[in-house]
Amino acid sequence: MIRLIFLGLFFLTTLSANEVNAIQDNNISLDASLPKVLYLNFKSTPHRVIKGEIFPITIKTLSTVKDFSNITYELLNYNGLKLLNELPYREEDSRYFYDTFYFLTTDSDAKIPDFKATLNGFDNTIYRDTILNGFKLNVVTLNPKKYFANIVANSFELLEFKTTAYDDDHNIVVFVATATNCDIASFELKDAYKQGIESITESHFNSKLVYYAVIKKDIENLSFSYFNLLQNNFVRLNIPIIVDDDSVTTQTDLKPKDQSHDRVKMLLASAIALIAFLLILWRKKYIYLVFILIPLTYVIYIAIPSKEVCIKVGSKIYLLPVHNGTIFEKTNTVYHLQKEGSVKDFVKVKLKNEKIGWVKNEDICKD
Q1: Is residue 24 part of a domain?
Q2: If we measure between CA atoms, which residue out of 354, 352, 355, 356 comes closest to residue 334?
Q3: How far apart are the first and last CA of the chain?
Q4: Domain that holds residue 327
């Protein structure tokens, strides 16, 4: 019985030593005169990544010191990668710490960092730092087709979209998209006349984008593709171009109010009212007053000029009524502009060059 107990203790001691040695083999010590208390190893690393892909690296860390303040890392000697979280996402399991960093692959030549770990104690005791050496990554560069939008993600979905007229030759498409495990800021369309990000929520877990693109009027379907990491394939998305002609109260309406036919409409309404008046004189039937009052009301409505608003000096004119949106003009003096409509926090105005823009309510002059 005593022999079995000794054999068990010997087995456990050997197993523990092998575990520590296995971790220690991958490390390079710095100052041998100081006590070494941290042992690191890679818990998970990718075998292959795609340029533009976001991937995690998890480090398994063991401390021989029981009570301490924190374990910190310094990342050294890496290239072709962009670090996305300075502080690791940490999980604890028994004696081990699992610290995860996320990286964006920015180049086909990439190397994982050397991780320099430091134990911060509660007293002034100085311990030996430990370095876990990085290694060169196997990076694959995609060979996409024409419509690739520069997106590599686990998912990329269109939530909503809308198209309005931009000018005589172009329409403007505004859409909202969400993505997971994606550098959504890299989104870019091919062959757009103009394009840009109106607002963005960046996160390598879940990101969101409001994007606009000015495209030719003859385009009936806006198509683009992204690379789906889970399907290991390109996925194509389509936005049917249906030009919306709704009112100025919607968020993405950019179309100037078309007043080119107002004069014709007023003349027609006036003519109807005149005919109704003549009928009253001829037939002596006052029922025709309806055909006078309705057209005249319409004429008065059309004839009322749009309200003018005063814009402060230095105000920003936005392309769309969204915060942190694209600014295409800044006032260098007080502007008095025609008000075209309003949405929450923004007023739609027509500039002197006939362009339509949005101004924040706080930039409207106070009486």
Answers
A1: no
A2: 352
A3: 97
A4: 306-366
Residue 222 belongs to some domain of the structure: yes
Specify if 298 maps to a domain.
Answer: yes
State the burial class of residue 46 (Cβ atoms within 10 Å of its Cβ: 0-12, 13-18, 19+): middle
The segments of the chain whose pLDDT lies below 70 read: 1-32, 245-263, 302-306, 324, 354, 367
Q: Which of 91, 108, 140 is the last residue of a domain?
A: 140
Q: What phi and psi values does residue 324 have, to the nearest 5 degrees?
A: 60, 25
Flag whether 26 is in a domain: no
Establish how many alpha carbons lie within 13 A of residue 192's alpha carbon, considering only the half-sphere containing its beta carbon. Answer: 23
CATH number at residue 326: 2.30.30.40
pLDDT for the residue 329: 78
pLDDT digits (tens, 9 = 90+) for 269-320: 888 888 888 888 887 777 778 888 888 887 777 666 567 888 988 888 887 7
Based on the fold, state whether residues 111 and 166 are members of the same structural domain: no
54 and 134 assigned to the same domain:
yes
How many other β-carbons are positioned within 10 Å of the β-carbon of residue 116? 18
Token couple for 103: 């990286």
The Cβ of residue 276 has, within 10 Å, a number of other Cβ atoms equal to: 19
Contact 27, 39 (CB under 8 A): yes
User: Has this prediction a pTM greater than 0.85?
Assistant: no
User: Contact 147/237 with Cβ under 8 angstroms?
Assistant: no
Amino acid identity, position 320: L
In Å, what is the CA distance from 259 to each residue of 127, 272, 292?
Answer: 77, 21, 23
- Looking at the structure, do residues 162 and 71 belong to the same domain, yes or no? no
Q: Are residues 193 and 121 in the same domain?
A: no
* Alpha carbon 287 to its chain's center: 60
